[in-house]
Design brief:
This protein has 731 residues and is mainly β. It has seven domains: 31 residues, no CATH class; 108 residues, Immunoglobulin-like, CATH 2.60.40.2310; 109 residues, Immunoglobulin-like, CATH 2.60.40; 122 residues, Sandwich (Immunoglobulin-like); 163 residues, Immunoglobulins (Immunoglobulin-like, Sandwich); 128 residues, Immunoglobulin-like (Sandwich), CATH 2.60.40.10; 27 residues. 5% of the residues lie in helices and 51% in strands. Strands 4, 6, 8, 10, 11 and 12 form a six-stranded mixed β-sheet that branches. A six-stranded antiparallel β-sheet has the order 32-31-34-45-36-37, with no helix packed on it. Strands 49-57-56-51-54-53 form a six-stranded mixed β-sheet, with no helix packed on it. Strand 39 and strand 40 form a beta hairpin. It is elongated.
């Protein structure tokens, strides 16, 4: 006997009976028969099949892709299935939720779904393909898998980079020099990439130069995952030893996005020592038992604060005349500190101690930079390079030497102090009247104090820069009142010791008609120019002292100018003519044109917007610039844009026309507001000008016929009529 179990039959114990019957049995009681019972046990079969919702995926490293794995029960009983994975990158795969569950039989139709999550990393090269096999297991025994239809994963590209510097700090770099380091970028992504590198903005005067602004490398899995460029940092000549500059380097994607990494490079400046100096007055004259002062200007040409020592190393007078050093404020010292790139004035004060006219003492002064240990003599002047020497002569004399100066705004307006407002980059000139108030012809020297770093300060005399003393004769000169200048005979002024003697020279030189006698003075031009890098709010006090070369101790010749750096945007409008006019209404050719002068009263070149209030009741307004190069208009706008330099002006015509059409019988007065304002500040600095046009009705044709003669004629006719009526009544 053979029993065939149907495919997919559920596991169970199956029983049946087999009955045998004798078909030809002669037994009267019936046919003989027998029954045998049989049992069949169908075992549990745990089998499955697998299908996937996706067989290929493209996933970026770190991102998660999902698919559905559906297991079908092709066994004959419910059983618990476990999901597993195989492949070199099986760790990327996981089950969302429980990784096992009952796979139902359901009469051969049972299924179980699992959500599979795949999260690749960048441990493999970008765009490479990896296969993951999904398995269905009974415990540890695999029952089915996706070997034939494994999931193919194409891995995207990760991006990132780190950066390192060959040096994180560069110490002691000399001003004006260029120093270098390297910048290395390492690709942390899994594919070839190009990175952008940049440096933060250095301080003014410093520069940072990158060999290239981009670096290309292979992936992090390659031996060529790094790229290196050179970096040059240039220091300005005026870099100070106190400066410590930090430059931040960044590596970024070539497209938009934040930096992957940054590194800081610190640069310090080497201390450099240097000095220079001058003594404008070698000889000083004074009366017995008085003191004379020799100004000594010392400039610290180095880039760090240094201390300077002053000493008298020799003197010819025996016994020696009294001497000491003092600062500008009169403090007696022998040493002073001078900031880098700064200048200070020290005075050698000598007591005149003699009896005979022109008796003198010769003094040698040494100035030593205590911060500079360079005592060599590279310039071969027999003085160590960290020292300066000056030779002065103090002279006994009863003569008086002195200079004075005032600011001459006009011949009748003199002052010793002025207030000045300039914009960044602006400049202004003053005229200085310099007078010799001593006893004889002498040289004047000029000393500036203040505004260092904010503005330039230059002096000129007769069109040439002043770089030393200038001669100021004592006496009277030939003065031209129309030009405000003295007559020069060659390079020297025409001078007389008194009024009569200069008058004789005026006559002798044929200058009677053009020149008069006047006490002589020099006219010096002072120009102040604000640095373009200055900002609003900067400023300070400039002090100019004019002294005699022979008597620098007398510093009474002093003027001061207080400078304030401020940008002023200001506009003015001036009506040329009447501010009110009359026109006839109803006439097409009737109009009035106002003339307005537009002026830039600020202190910088500025653009101004000029416009009018709205037109009303048919009145029209047209703005007409005299100079279309200064004022431009756009057809789409109803305003002018005028660009005026400081102090510049331009004429603008305002044409006002009344309504046109039928004769208007009612008077109409139209007022408009003409407005000008700086484009930069607008309403804040706006100025307005009100213009008025009165419109009068035009005469009708009848009014035109009724002239005085016509009225006289009508009157005569009326009188004749009255006379005619009177005669008829008599009759």
């Amino acid at each position: 006997m053979t029993v065939e179990v149907p495919e997919g039959k559920a596991s169970d114990k199956y029983c049946w009976e087999i009955e045998g019957i004798v078909s030809n049995d002669q037994n009267p009681n019936g046919s003989a028969s027998d029954v045998e019972e049989f049992d069949l046990n169908v075992p549990v079969l745990k089998e499955c099949e697998l299908s996937l919702s996706k067989t290929s995926m493209i996933i970026q490293p770190g991102d998660t892709g999902t698919l559905i794995a559906t297991f079908s029960n092709i066994g004959n009983a419910d059983w618990t299935i476990n999901v597993g994975f195989s492949g070199s990158q099986s760790a990327w795969a996981s089950v969302d939720g429980a990784s096992s569950g009952v796979l139902p039989y359901n009469n051969g139709n049972g299924e179980k779904e699992f959500t599979i999550e795949i999260t690749p990393d960048d441990s493999v090269e970008a765009n490479s393909q990896q296969t993951i096999t999904i398995q269905g297991k009974d415990g540890g025994i695999m029952k089915c898998d996706s070997a034939g239809i494994g999931v193919s994963i194409t891995v995207g590209q990760s991006r990132g980079a780190v950066m390192s510097l060959g040096n994180t700090a560069l110490y002691g770099i000399e001003p004006g020099q260029t120093t270098s380091t390297t910048l290395t970028v390492t690709n942390q992504g899994n594919g070839p990439d190009t990175f952008r590198v940049s440096a933060s903005s250095p301080p003014s005067g410093w520069s940072v130069s990158l060999e290239s602004s981009t670096i290309s490398t292979q992936s992090k899995h390659s031996n060529e995952k790094t790229g290196t460029i050179d970096v040059d940092i240039s220091l300005p000549l005026d870099a100070l030893a106190t400066e410590e500059v930090t430059i931040t380097f960044s590596v970024m994607p070539t497209s938009s996005g934040g930096a992957y990494d940054t590194q800081d490079l610190t640069i310090t400046v080497k201390a450099v020592h240097g000095m220079s100096g001058g003594a404008p007055a070698d000889d000083q004259t004074g009366r017995s038992d008085t003191t004379v002062q020799f100004p000594i200007t010392i400039s610290n040409d180095g880039n760090t604060l240094d201390r300077f020592r002053f000493s008298v190393i020799s003197q010819t007078a025996q016994p020696g005349w009294g001497k000491h050093f003092e600062t500008e404020d009169g403090t007696v010292v022998t040493e002073i500190d001078i900031d880098a790139r700064s200048t200070a004035i020290m005075y050698l004060v000598v007591s005149i101690d003699g009896e005979e006219e022109l008796e003198s003492s010769r003094l040698t002064v040494r100035v030593t930079n205590l911060g500079d240990n360079n005592n060599g003599d590279e310039d071969n002047d027999d003085v160590p390079d960290n020292q300066l020497e000056f030779i002065f002569r103090a002279i006994l004399s009863d003569r008086d030497f002195a200079m004075d100066t005032v600011i001459m705004n006009s011949p009748d307006y003199l002052s010793r102090s002025e207030m000045l407002i300039l914009s960044p980059g602006g400049s202004h000139s003053y005229t200085l009247k310099v007078m010799n108030t001593g006893d004889m012809t002498d040289d004047a020297i000029f000393d500036f104090t203040g505004l260092t770093g904010t503005a330039t300060r230059t002096l000129s005399y007769r069109g040439m820069p002043i770089d030393g003393p200038i001669s100021i004769p004592k006496g009277w000169g030939a003065f031209n009142e129309s030009t405000g200048t003295f007559y020069f005979d060659g390079n020297s002024p025409l001078i007389g010791s008194n009024e009569d003697k200069i008058f004789d020279k005026i006559v002798a030189n044929g200058l009677v008609d053009s020149h008069v006698a006047a006490p002589y003075y020099a006219i010096v031009t002072l120009n102040i120019g604000v640095n373009s890098g200055a900002v609003n709010g900067d400023g300070g006090l400039l002090e100019i002292v004019v002294t005699s070369v022979a008597n620098a101790a007398n510093r009474s010749g002093k003027v001061t100018i207080s400078l304030s750096v401020e940008t002023i945007l200001e506009v003015e409008m001036e009506i040329l003519g009447e501010i009110e006019a009359n026109v006839t209404l109803g006439k097409a050719d009737s109009s009035h044109t106002f003339k307005v002068m537009l002026s830039n009263s600020g202190n910088v070149e500025s653009e101004f917007k000029v416009f009018t209030s709205d037109e009303l009741r048919g009145w029209t307004v047209t703005l007409i610039p005299e100079d279309v190069m200064i004022c431009t208009s756009n057809r789409s706008t109803d305003y002018l844009l005028c660009t005026l330099e400081e102090g510049g002006e331009t004429l603008i015509k305002v044409k006002v026309s009344p309504p046109i059409g039928d004769t208007v019988d009612v008077e109409d007065s139209f007022s408009l507001v003409l407005t000008a304002e700086p484009s930069e500040t607008g309403l804040v600095d706006r100025v307005n000008l009100v213009l008025t046009v009165n419109g009068q009705p035009s005469e009708s044709w009848l009014n035109g016929l009724i002239t005085p003669n016509v009225l006289y004629g009508i009157g005569a006719v009326v009188l004749l009529g009255f006379a005619y009526l009177a005669l008829r009544r008599r009759d």
